[in-house]
Structure formats: C-alpha cells, structure tokens
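pipeline stage [seq->struct] | target=Ferredoxin-type protein NapF | organism=Photobacterium ganghwense | residues=163
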Amino acid sequence: MFDRSRRRLLTRRSKPEQQRLPWMVNDDIFTDGCTRCGKCAAACETQIIIHGDGGFPEVDFKRGECTFCYRCADVCPEPLFHPQTTPAWAMVAEIGEGCLAYQHVECRSCGDMCETQAIRFRLQPGGVAQPELEATNCTGCGACVSVCPTSAITVVNPKNKES
Ligand code: SF4
Ligand code: SF4
Ligand code: SF4
C-alpha cells in the first residue's frame, strides 16, 4: 500500500489549480484515486491526454483541442469526475508576450481557430491588428494553442494566475 501523504508529496503540482482533465475533481482527490491505468488517454477522441506530472494523465494542448466529448470521464473506473451536466472547468486561454501581433507582425491564426470567437482582433490605425481575448466566451478548449506559431498561448485557471 502506497503511503498517501508520500504519494501527495511526490505528485502535488507546483500549480495544483491547473486542472489536469475536464470535469476532474480537485487535484488531491484525483492523485489519491487515479491508478494511472491510461484508459482516459486511450479513449480521448483527439488524443491530447498524456502522462503528465507524477505519471498522472493531463491534457496537452500542443497536440490538439478538447472537444468536451466526456469520454475520459466516462471510461474512468474511479469516481474522479464531476457529472457532464456541470461546467467542464474554469480554464481560459491567455495570450502571452510572444504573440507575433504584439511584435507588429500580422497573424490571426488563433482567432481563426476559435469557434466561440473569444479571440477578436482590434484594428490599429496604420498598424497590425491586436488580439483581444473575451474570457467569458472562452471554453478553455485549447484549439488556439497548437496553431500559434510562437507558442504564445497557454490555458490557465484565471482565479489562480497570481499564485
Ligand atoms: S473531454 Fe474528450 S477530448 Fe477532452 S480530454 Fe476528455 S476525452 Fe479528450
Ligand atoms: S496565433 Fe499566436 S502569434 Fe498569432 S495572433 Fe494569435 S497569439 Fe498572436
Ligand atoms: S481556448 Fe478555445 S475558446 Fe478559448 S480562445 Fe482558445 S480556441 Fe477560443
């Protein structure tokens, strides 16, 4: 039997607020209960679930987007996910300083990928249009992440950005 407190010590994330998977219960309960069986990764329709911190599953948006299909939660044999009727998560995209448009280079790749139009471009007189994220429209699907040529976009929990 693996000692629980030791398991936590080995697996606790430096940023536990970043949800590993949609609909996931909190990180402590998840790392206590997840057996790392890999069923969620095998079931993911976009194949974005990888072995993350401590070998636990987590989404990697560099591989693609989450379609919120709920397969990862459905296939999990442990009680580690909230019902599909609840919000998947609070995660939203964040555009970092590496954005080409911020360096006055034309690019709208992220906006083109965003189904909910959470990223819009504001025209600048005589300049390059700048991206603006409307967080309330962002589902945290991550579709904008892999298309960004400078890897400027991350998906974060806005409530914990300062921690
Ligand atoms: S909800 Fe679907 S697409 Fe998203 S991580 Fe789970 S299995 Fe993959
Ligand atoms: S795809 Fe990346 S570089 Fe292009 S506008 Fe969006 S954040 Fe900026
Ligand atoms: S995470 Fe999804 S919804 Fe949010 S800005 Fe990116 S593409 Fe749009």
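stage status: PASS
auto-comment: The chain has five helices and six strands. The mean pLDDT is 90.
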